[in-house]
Design goal:
The chain has one domain: Rossmann fold. β1, α1 and β2 form a beta-alpha-beta unit. About 40% of the residues are buried. The two termini are about 15 Å apart. The strands form 2 sheets. A 7-stranded mixed β-sheet has the order 3-2-1-4-5-6-7, with helices on both faces. Strands 8-9 form a two-stranded antiparallel ribbon. The chain is α/β, with parallel strands linked by helices and about 210 residues long. The protein has 6 helices and 9 strands; from the N terminus they run βαβαβαβαβαββαββ. The longest helix is centred in the C-terminal third of the chain and has 24 residues. Bound molecules: 5-O-phosphono-beta-D-ribofuranosylamine (GRF).
Length: about 210
Amino acid sequence: MSKLKIAVLVSGSGSNLQALIDAAACGSIQGQIEIVISDRPGAYALQRAEKHGITAACIDKKSYENKIDFDIQLFNRLNEVQPDLIILAGYLSILSSELIEKYRGKIINIHPSLLPAFGGKGFYGEKVHKAVIESGAKVSGATVHFVDENTDTGPIILQKAVVVLYGDTPETLAKRVLAVEHYLIVKAAELFCSNKLKQEGLNVRILRE
Ligand code: GRF
């Protein structure tokens, strides 16, 4: 089975990207990371890509007068690759509807909570964990889902729970959730690249055979 072409979009340290790089390198993902694109020039994720000989591009959001020009650049850059799968790995910019339309069913995102809880506008990074702790929730976790037009609302692919401990801070909870994110994002990429994900409306069936 030929390897699928993967594009990974990042904004930060790239620990989720690193998990994907390591998994692709050991062959557990039937896919090849063709390009890593960051919307921020300082993202350490770009260095992680370069270290592994993966094309690393930055489309600096701040250098565009308006979002449309940024969206066009991103759309064109991705079109050069024609990825079979786009993974948002800690990516913080909103995708254009044109991009979502063109790659519908081929874009997955990792979110650091058990969606639909603690998702949507403004819920990213440590803000999520702060809200979880303030709510008194006893369980949090991570979610991988297909991306649709809204924020964190697409069909859920995988989830895994993480206990919220008494005395947890956003940092301590984030650390435990991040470890689960790394597991889920790799698992989801493996399943997608092995054609084992079947979207049935809002449900995603995992084909085990
Ligand atoms: C983390 O807060 C994670 O929850 C979210 O993006 C942030 C950075 O992740 N998905 P990474 O280390 O850049 O992959």
